[in-house]
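Standup notes
- DV: blocked on the single-chain target, sequence here:
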Amino acid sequence: MLVLLPPSEGKAEGTDGPALELARLSLPELTPAREMVLTELAELCAADEVKAREILGLSERQTGEVARNAVLRTAPTLPAGQLYTGVLYDALGLGTLGGTARERAERALLVFSGLWGALRVGDPVPAYRCSGGVRLPALGPLARHWREPLGKALPEAAEGRLVLDLRSTAYAGMWKPDPRTARRTTTVRVLQSRTVNGVEKRSVVSHFNKATKGRIVRALLESGAEPTTPDELTGVLRDLGYHVEGENAARLDVVVTEV
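- DV (later): unblocked, structure below
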C-alpha cells in the first residue's frame, strides 16, 4: 500500500540536524525539479520580502517564514515525519508508533510538497513555507511544474500497490495516476454524522476530516494489513471499526459520529 498525504503548514521548531543535502532525499529522479524550486524560492525570499510574502500568500506577521525560506540551503533539517505538525500529523502520531509500524510508515507514506515534490517520512529537510498552490515568477504554478517529474517517478513507486490518496486539492493537482495505477487508487472522504432535532445530518468538517484521516493511517500501519484493492481496504477498515459506505471504489465514505 502507498498512502499519499498532504504536508502541513505547521512545522516543528528547534531542530539541530545537518544542512540540506538534496542527494540524500528519496525519489532522486526529482532532484533537478527540486533544485529549480529551491533556487527560485530562496533567491526570491532573500531579495524582496514584500514580494515574497505576496507570492506565498503570507501576512506581515508571517515575515519570519520569508526569512526562513531565504536560508533553506544552510538551515538545519529534520526528518519529514517529525517536521510536519498539524491536525492530521498529530492524530497520526508517527513518533509514537512501534518499531514494525514505523518501518511500514517509511515504506508506505509519501508526503506531497510544493517545494520538494514528494518525500518519504525519513527524508531530512529544513522547515519552509511554500504551498502547492504557489505560482513562482519564473517557474509558474508549482502544481504544473511537478506534473512531469512526478509523472515519471511515481508509477514505479506505486507499481503493484493499492494507492490510498489522502491529498488535499492543492496537492492532488501535482500528480494524477496513469490509467493502470488509477484502477488501484482510492480516496477517503470523512463525513461527520450528527443528529439535529432527531434528524441525521452529515457534513465534511476540515478539522474532523484531517484528524480522522490521521487516525485511519495510524490504524492501518499498526494493523499490519496489506490491502491490494479498494474492496480489500473497505474490509480492513470495517474490521478496524470504521463505518464505511459507498459503492464507488474510487472513493470510500467513512462516516464518523459526532461525540
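- Follow-up: The chain has one domain: 2-257.
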